[in-house]
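FAQ: What does the model actually see?

It sees only this:
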Amino acid sequence: MQACNLVYPYFENPEMLKRQVENWNSYSEEVYEAIRIILVDDNSTKEARPIFEQCRAPKALLRFMEPALWTMHEARNLGALGGASSWPGRWL
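And it is asked to produce this:
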């Protein structure tokens, strides 16, 4: 199985994130060995950290500290940069 970084932007949707964490937690150990989940919180008032900490998959949380327009695109780029620098040589 090819190693992969999954970049997942998040903004103000805790119920969706809870559902996604449940999904990630259902993955097998074999999948956990191949993936890293990079969640980018786009300066939400409903922070992702408390929910994301429940995720059992290998993970990293990045967060924009200042609000800005159109940062959902920057969130993907930040996740890609974080993944490439922390876990190089993986699919994105």
